[in-house]
Amino acid sequence: MRLVAADKLPDVLGTDKYLGGLINNRNGHLHPLNLCLGEACAAAGLGVSIHEGTEVKGIEHGSRPVVATRQGRVSADFVVLAGNAYHHL
Asked: Exposed, middle or buried: residue 66 (CB in 10 Å: 0-12, 13-18, 19+)?
């Protein structure tokens, strides 16, 4: 680990808004929301349709799954159920 003084931070971060910092090259960190947003953007760019907050009433499994919602039914090649670690899926 390496301490970074305030006068050196603009070289590291491109801003002078911080008083100091600590560089940790021993392990990795990520921002979970930014990761999720980036994955969603990449998926949408590949043609994936994301329906956040749509209540699913049932899924008919098979080679072409069908998802039933209150508004109708959707046939898809793949269905992904996603939620955070504290969801009751």
From this structure: middle
**Residue 86 in this model has a pLDDT that exceeds 90:** no
pTM score above 0.85: no
Residue 76: CB atoms within 10 A of its CB come to: 13
Contact in structure between 68 and 51 (CB atoms under 8 Å): no
Bridge-partner residues for 88, per DSSP? none
Which residues are CB-contacts of 26 (< 8 A; sequence separation ≥ 6)? 1
State the alpha helices, DSSP H only, in the chain: 9-13, 32-45
Please give the pLDDT value at position 75.
Answer: 94
Least confident residue range of 47-51, 57-61, 82-86? 82-86
Alpha-carbon span 75 to 59, nearest angstrom:
10
